[in-house]
Fold these 2 entries.
Entry 1:
Amino acid sequence: MLRPLLLCLALTALSGCAALGALGRATEPLDVHELRAPETTPVAAASQGIQLVVEVPAAGGAIATDRILVRTGDTQVAYLPDARWSEEAPVMLQSAMVETFLRADAFRYVGRRPLGAAGDIALVSELVDFGARAAPDGESAVVEMTLVARLVREEDAAVTASRSFARSVEVSDTSTPALLAGFDRVSDAVLTDLARWVFRARGLRTAES
């Protein structure tokens, strides 16, 4: 999948193959893929009686779309031609975060918005990288995800903790199913790391510790 895509982009100026390819696929429906919370998430030993508000991650224009990003060079990007996300990537990730913390049973309330005028703690984040990159051999790929997260106290907007999470997963081939499985794995890893970090930042223990 990535090798023909890279070749097509390289020849765009000469042959217009990218434009023609896009026109040919304009009426083709794309398979829809959704990222969810990890099947096994950390669970808190006890719940705190506060509200955790999970905000939509900020993201650059190349990521803030429902198309699945493929990096074809240091500054060049493209998108998988036969699949898309169920929502724009930051909104989909917000849903997966909310689901992760609901399963964690760590807080009295977890949601996209506070129950009242304001919550207690907000999880504010930026999705810096979320895409696939062809390996030098052209036969395999690496799926990468970088998320910068901050816990913000709502009453005075003070940042109480911050951390960057970066994970990468190698996939053995560049077919769409293999790449999507790579996105699942890297997202699961980052969300698990995120949950454990929030626990530590809030002084919570996991049920197994």
Entry 2:
Amino acid sequence: MKRLIRRYMREDDAAVAFEAVIITPILAWLFVGSFVFFDAFRTYNTSLKATYAVADVLSRETDWIYGSDIEGLADVFQHITRNVEQSSLRVTQVRRSTSEYRIDWSYATDGTARLFNSNIPAIQSQLPNMVFGERIIVVETFLPYRPAFNVGLRPLEFTNFTVTRPRFAGQLQFDDGSDPLYCGSSCNFGDGDEEPDPDTDSGPAGS
């Protein structure tokens, strides 16, 4: 038996066609799999950068924003990520009261649920330490991803959560649609962002 094993180990004859049948499916899976996993990491990285871009735009705002503005930023996010699925965006302003975090306002696109004060415990660990009266902007994006090939990576959703502070104002003022200049969900990006009339407006939501 030992002699047979040693002879088998020294044997170097082979059939190229037989080896090709064994190795070709493995090489094909490795090639396709590397493409799918690389594309998944690329998509996630792009969605993260797009989320930072949206948060940076919001942090520079000094005027009121409206639902149409956030809808427009959701379109910008979808364009940057080149997403053909139904991505969504949620923007929430959180303030620190004397003893707890509170939500000033929240707006979400494409059917995503808004955040309420009851949702604070679920995200509190992701919020930074804040002084009393300080406000921050929470930007969340949700990007579905479906692999081009089935190589063991199931369809998933990339969720990004980022926090920023208003740069040039104490808070990001948002109108929920009660202002007469608000043009509704059918508006284009930037519509309804005129300066409101102080004599007729009752003030932005959450101010």
